[in-house]
Amino acid sequence: MTVCMAPCPIVFDLDGTLIDSAPDIHASVNAVLLQQDVAPLSLDRIRSFVGGGVEVLWTKIVAATGIEPGLQRDLIAAFMARYHDATRLTRLFPGAFEALGVLADRGHPLGICTNKPLGPTVAVLDHFGIRQLFGIVIAGDSLPQKKPDPAPLRAALQGLGADPDTPKALYVGDSEFDAACAAAVPVPFLIYSRGYRLKPLEQLPHRAAFDDFSILPRLVEDEAMA
Question: Which residues participate directly in catalysis (predicted)?
Fold first, then answer.
């Protein structure tokens, strides 16, 4: 069965897929915890909380630290004041920039669908000089719904010209949120195996997995010809 005819739209998750942003999230979280006289959390712990958006992040932090839940709204506000333009510790995953360039050069419409808020999303895309590659950006506060609800991914795909009922497109991500979202649309899911997922790969529905961005363009073309 044909999945899509090249050049088909390709939508990417951001945190844990194109960028390793956990160090900046970790630093911003611990700065807020310090203000509350709460012991800092490790980078690995914070990384395990990333993917569901800022509210999910802080719900998990509050549960892990025993902070009064009624303070969560103020903690999020303090976090966002630091996080909205936090890029100093964030890195593109190796080969991601080059793979995006290849796909764009081949004519694939590219988009972003992330649970990260729009402000930090735009800031980090600008920081790495890749914002212009993406025809649409759907962030965690662009719609009432967040991944794994399919609405954000559907909006991104439609913004790139995909058929809203039977989108011939691909989604590239790294986590449980992304896998469930792609399955709900549905579109084929390519998973970056060095991201922030918590479950083993075999427990997540996906068409193909990759740990090296240099092979992503080939995987995309394989799907286009399937």
Answer: 13 (nucleophile)
